[in-house]
Design goal:
three-stranded mixed β-sheet; mainly alpha; 14 helices; single chain; 9% strand
Length: 393
């Protein structure tokens, strides 16, 4: 039998994990365990109907099913002690209709605004939308966890550019970027001129595409802090792909102007830390690793569990956003603390040692990194555990 999906299973497990992480009473934990039983009963009924077993599910669903089974076997876990930031679990996220379209309209206005009247009109639109959004947050008593990541990003963008000096800085950056990127875009013959620059909430380094009347080059909002060198680096990456282009751009993104603006956007969005897990707490893991291997000198990054139970990649360090993410696959009762600490140590080494560039390529697992990683006290045992977890289906 071919594998088939059970819609919502992985999402349900993420919800249970957050409920357990946020449990402060026995009743809250009992409610979470009751949800575990309901979900397992539904999944088992679907499997029986199709004459299937959990092994017919896709790997992410298999890991989710195994997590639920672990909880059913071990329902008497201690309730949380409040030492970690709770993970909010609102029943339904609040949405704003038209927020994205409003953002898109203002991005185009910012891309073409020249006169003082155009700039004032754009600023008034952004400020009004930002003000209404903040009023809604206050009126509905919302926290950042009550809205989607996209809405948090839009909120931060609107709040930033509702301040007139920031909007003027954005327009100045757009003009500088245009002066550097337009000629390179036109030279390729692939893009409809003129080129409009959008500084927007987004993942990735850039996006460029054609419309009927022009082309749009989108880049992350903090790039409006770039100077000429920064825009020359992204120009080279967009249009010529020189060996050093990505290295140069990455250096610009790690520089103080970009990082300061990124930090301001994070604060405006309302950061959410999901460090508390159902079985393991990333805050406690960081404290142990920082004490044992970094002499308490490692600045604390943002810590969060992934929503997905990944199969092979168990951690990630985002140097631009200074965030350490660990896979929810590790948040199981049978996974020893030293395995979680090893992945934490691995990612903090990335934070400490950074990247090594050679011939335009970046290397993170250098000989220096590998030697430092082997200093972990339970290195061999932890590697064996991760190999076992990676082999599970």
């Amino acid at each position: 039998m071919k594998s088939f999906r059970i819609s919502g299973l992985v999402r349900s497990v993420d919800s249970v994990r957050r409920q357990l992480a946020d449990s402060r009473t026995l009743q809250q934990r009992a409610d979470a365990i009751a949800q575990v039983d309901r979900t397992l009963n539904q999944v088992d009924a679907i499997l029986a109907e199709h004459r299937a077993t959990p092994r017919h599910l896709p790997p992410p669903s298999q890991r989710a099913y195994r997590f639920l089974m672990d909880l059913r076997k071990n329902p008497t876990l201690p309730v949380g002690d409040g030492s970690s930031t709770p993970a909010a679990t609102p029943p339904e996220r609040t949405r704003w209709r038209g927020l994205r379209s409003t953002l898109e309209r203002n991005l185009e206005r910012l891309a073409t605004a020249e006169s003082e009247a155009q700039i004032d009109k754009t600023h008034a639109s952004i400020a009004a939308t930002s003000g209404q959004l903040e009023q809604d947050f206050h009126r509905l008593n919302l926290t950042p966890a009550d809205v989607s990541p996209e809405t948090r990003d839009f909120r931060a963008w609107l709040a930033l550019l509702s301040e007139k000096p920031n909007l003027l800085a954005c327009i100045a950056a757009r003009k500088l970027a245009n002066s550097i990127l337009n000629a390179a875009a036109q030279k390729t013959g692939l893009w409809t001129m003129p080129l409009h620059i959008h500084f927007r909430p987004m993942r990735g380094l850039y996006r460029i595409h054609n419309t009927r009347t022009h082309s749009i080059a989108a880049m992350p909002t903090p790039m409006l802090a770039f100077d000429q060198t920064g825009f020359e680096a992204i120009r080279d990456l967009m249009f010529s792909r020189t060996p050093q282009s990505k290295q140069q751009l990455h250096a610009q993104m790690l520089a103080e102007p970009y990082q300061n603006l990124q930090a301001e956007l994070t604060a405006l969005a309302g950061p959410i830390e999901r460090a508390a897990g159902a079985f393991h707490d990333l805050n406690l893991s960081f404290l142990r690793v920082n004490a044992d291997y970094f002499n308490h000198q490692m600045p604390k990054p943002n810590l969060t569990w992934s929503r997905m139970m990944t199969g092979r990649k168990f951690g990630h360090h985002d140097s631009i956003r200074d965030t350490v993410l660990l896979s929810a696959t590790l948040d199981r009762p049978d996974v020893p603390i030293f395995v979680v600490d090893f992945v934490m140590y691995h990612e903090l080494l990335h934070k400490k040692l950074g990247l090594t560039w050679f011939a335009g390529r970046r290397y993170v697992h250098t000989p220096e990194f590998n030697a430092a990683e082997r200093l972990f006290k339970f290195y061999a045992q932890a590697e064996a555990w991760l190999t076992r977890l990676a082999s599970e289906r």
